[in-house]
């Protein structure tokens, strides 16, 4: 008897890893969950009249697509993308457009053994426990500019674990695993969630103790309470305007994430030199979405949803303590200053700024871009004007 | 050796046969009065059974050839009637084959684009099961109470749109023998569809604990991603139901976390 397309696809499922989609017919695929249950996905392209590869389907696609209020809504309703809406994805765009710039995917890349090591830690039992490891190259002088190069951070290694069928996710279990993390023995510090340092856990005898006491007892000595800025809004701000400043204009990022094994779902366990869970969480990090009724009386919320942020919090602790803001380039500073001024004041101010930069030995032109050789004629306004103004060059 | 008494009570048997004959005669008289020819010859009966078997051999055949769906956009789409035969879209045979696979008793998860008529298809499967197998209890859980009634309307529409000989073969429960099909269906509660063979389809609203008073054979959760306590409701259904189907369009939710193995019991 001839095999049906479904039977053939089911047989193929036995040979591929879990969550691998196997096409049954165009637009319909099946996959197996890790517990063996079957998931069928039915996409609109299964209907020939809606398949964009056919003339009629292409027409339907164009007509239907423009009727949706946003691309995100289209993706959610028709492309079966469950994360397309529900608040702005704060790192979604940067991680998709500049994935190759930010994420190190080279399988042969390993951190320099001379780099310093620091860590970030978030405790959880039912939720995930996460330890992130970061490598920080020593400060050095850039031979090209003669200036001190800003600190770079390489997030390279994570331990991510939550309660599972065969795993209670208690402190003792997790510490044993975390101590196996390469290079953590030479970590300078591990910034941890401050709440684990409060005496809130009931003890068998005596006063309540802190969760950290159990970690300390298990030889996790390097943890310290994170005492930096805890605001999610600030975190998102400094990631964009500091660590990843100007990467759209070709600047190097100051924070790299090493991940050779990205995934669409959490990967519990030890990843000695990769961060698949951090990437998974960052792609899904969203701002809180207010309802239409709430928006009548409030501004749009900027905070992040308190969900799937177990690796994001340690990243916040690491980046919050290592902050050493990227110097703002002169042209950007000038453009920002100029943007605040009207045209008349702007012309005078631009002249002054050009003169000022020229005096500093970094001449720029009227367009704000650096000039080699001669810069603009300038009047040194810092000097007291004499009978005749001091005219340079 | 004493003779053993026969276990068959022939007197009682004769009485039962007589009663059956009287009832048959009464039925014939009633049918004559209504002008309905019900007495079929053996050959006719055989042919009828064959026809019924052929019509209900698979959900896909039944849906595409022997019943109709309701299309609320019929006027805009320039159609002659809102009741149209089920479209022969390629995904239906595949989906229905998955549902009909008797060897697989595991829950089935379906994620889909909008307006694929998947809910209609799944309701078709459960309605035919209720028609063919006596005493089948099926529970359909959807977003709100109003929506809970919608899939029941689908089941009623599918049953009513069949040819008369199929409706006769799988009659609905009616308060009197002479009640017409449409009236019999309309007189049933909005969230229930009962058949003469004891099968019933219930519509219940979303939420935890709603299924606890039922012990259904089939459980269908529609638009799961939009139900707040869908995870708990699913766990509750697991212990009670044999055939479980969950279906939804996309939304960030327990359903999609679970189908992607991203669920970490984080609520």
In short:
The complex is a heterodimer of chains A (393) and B (267). Chain A is of the alpha/beta class.
Jot down its keywords.
heterodimer; A: 393 residues; alpha/beta; Nucleotidyltransferase, domain 5; 3 domains; eight-stranded mixed beta sheet; three-stranded antiparallel beta sheet; 13 strands; B: alpha/beta; two-stranded antiparallel sheet; 8 strands
How would you characterize the overall build of this protein?
The complex is a heterodimer of chains A (393) and B (267). Helix content of chain A is 30%, strand content 16%. Chain A is of the alpha/beta class and 393 residues long. Chain A folds into three domains: 5-82, no CATH class; 101-323, Nucleotidyltransferase, domain 5, CATH 3.30.420; 330-383, no CATH class. In chain A, strands 4, 5, 6, 7, 8, 11, 12 and 13 form an eight-stranded mixed sheet that branches. Chain A has a three-stranded antiparallel sheet with strand order 1-2-3, with helices on one face. Chain A has a two-stranded antiparallel ribbon with strand order 9-10. In chain A, helix 12 (330-339) runs antiparallel to helix 13. Chain A is globular, with a radius of gyration of 27 Å. Chain A starts with a helix and ends in a 34-residue tail after the last helix. Chain B is α/β, with parallel strands linked by helices and 267 residues long. In chain B, 43% of the residues lie in helices and 14% in strands. Chain B contains ten helices and eight strands. Chain B has helices at residues 10-34, 42-55, 59-65, 91-100, 118-132, 145-160, 164-169, 181-186, 230-240, 254-259, and strands spanning 68-70, 83-85, 108-112, 137-142, 192-194, 200-205, 218-222, 243-248. In chain B, the strands form two sheets. In chain B, strands 3-8-7-4-6-5 form a six-stranded mixed sheet, sandwiched between helices. In chain B, strands 1-2 form a two-stranded antiparallel ribbon. The longest helix of chain B has 25 residues, at 10-34. Chain B is globular and about 70 Å long. Chain B starts with 9 loop residues before the first helix and ends in an 8-residue tail after the last helix. Classes of the chains: A alpha/beta (393), B alpha/beta (267). At the A-B interface, strand 3 of A face helix 4, strand 3 and helix 10 of B. Strand 3 of chain A pairs parallel with strand 3 (108-112) of chain B, so a sheet runs across the interface.
């Amino acid at each position: 008897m001839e095999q049906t397309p479904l039977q053939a696809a089911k047989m193929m499922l036995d040979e591929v890893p879990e969550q691998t989609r196997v096409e049954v017919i165009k637009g319909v695929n099946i996959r197996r969950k890790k517990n063996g249950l079957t998931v069928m996905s039915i996409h609109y392209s299964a209907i020939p009249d809606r398949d964009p590869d056919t003339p009629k389907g292409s027409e339907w696609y164009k007509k239907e697509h423009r009727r949706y209020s946003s691309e995100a809504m289209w993706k959610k309703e028709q492309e079966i993308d469950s994360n397309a809406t529900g608040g702005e994805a704060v790192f979604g765009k940067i991680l998709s457009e500049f994935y190759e710039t930010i994420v190190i995917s080279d399988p042969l890349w390993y951190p320099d053994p001379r780099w310093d090591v620091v860590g970030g830690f978030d405790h959880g039992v039912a939720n995930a426990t996460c330890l992130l490891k970061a490598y920080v190259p020593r400060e050095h002088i850039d031979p090209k500019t003669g200036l001190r190069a800003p600190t770079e951070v390489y997030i390279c290694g994570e331990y991510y674990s939550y309660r599972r069928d065969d795993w209670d996710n208690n402190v003792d279990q997790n510490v044993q695993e975390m101590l196996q993390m390469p290079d953590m023995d030479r970590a300078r510090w591990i910034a941890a969630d401050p709440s684990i340092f409060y005496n809130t856990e009931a003890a068998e005898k005596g006063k309540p103790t802190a969760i950290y006491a159990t970690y300390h007892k298990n030889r996790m000595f390097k943890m310290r309470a994170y005492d930096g800025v805890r605001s999610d809004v600030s975190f998102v701000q400094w990631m964009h305007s500091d660590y990843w400043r100007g990467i759209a204009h070709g600047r190097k990022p100051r924070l790299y994430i090493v991940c050779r094994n990205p995934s669409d779902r959490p990967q519990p366990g030890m990843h000695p030199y990769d961060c698949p869970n951090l990437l998974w969480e960052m792609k899904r990090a969203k701002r809180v979405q207010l309802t239409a009724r709430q928006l009548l009386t409030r501004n749009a919320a900027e905070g992040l949803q308190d969900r799937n942020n177990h690796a994001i919090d340690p990243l916040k602790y690491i980046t919050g303590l290592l902050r050493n803001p990227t110097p703002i380039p002169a042209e950007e500073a000038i453009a920002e200053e100029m943007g605040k001024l009207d045209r008349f004041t702007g012309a005078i101010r631009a002249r002054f700024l050009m003169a000022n930069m020229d005096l500093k030995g970094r001449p720029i032109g009227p367009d704000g871009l650096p000039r080699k050789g001669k810069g603009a004629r300038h009047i040194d306004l810092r000097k007291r004007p004499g009978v005749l103004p001091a005219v340079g060059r | 050796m004493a003779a053993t008494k026969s276990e068959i009570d022939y007197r009682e048997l004769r009485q039962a046969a007589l009663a059956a004959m009287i009832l048959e005669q009464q039925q014939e008289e009633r049918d004559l009065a209504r002008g309905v020819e019900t007495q079929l010859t053996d050959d006719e009966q055989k042919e009828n059974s064959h026809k019924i078997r052929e019509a209900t051999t698979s959900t896909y055949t039944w849906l595409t050839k022997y019943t109709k769906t309701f299309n609320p956009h019929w006027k805009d789409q320039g159609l002659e009637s809102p009741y149209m035969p089920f479209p022969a879209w390629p995904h239906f045979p595949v989906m229905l084959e998955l549902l009909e696979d008797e060897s697989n008793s595991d829950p089935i998860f379906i994620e889909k684009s909008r307006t694929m008529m998947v809910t209609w298809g799944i309701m078709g499967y459960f309605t035919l099961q209720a028609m063919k197998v006596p005493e089948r209890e099926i529970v359909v859980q959807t977003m709100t109470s109003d929506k809970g009634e919608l899939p029941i309307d689908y089941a009623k529409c599918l049953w009513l749109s069949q040819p008369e000989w199929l409706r006769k073969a799988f009659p609905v429960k009616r308060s009197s023998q002479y009640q017409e099909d449409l009236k019999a269906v309309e007189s049933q509660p909005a969230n229930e569809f009962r058949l003469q063979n004891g099968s019933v389809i219930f519509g219940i609203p979303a939420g935890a604990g709603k299924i606890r008073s039922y012990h259904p054979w089939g459980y269908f959760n529609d638009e799961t991603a939009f139900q707040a306590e869908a995870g708990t409701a699913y766990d509750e259904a697991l212990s009670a139901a044999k055939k479980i189907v969950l279906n939804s369009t996309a939304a960030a939710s327990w359903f999609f976390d679970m189908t992607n193995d991203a669920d970490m019991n984080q609520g």
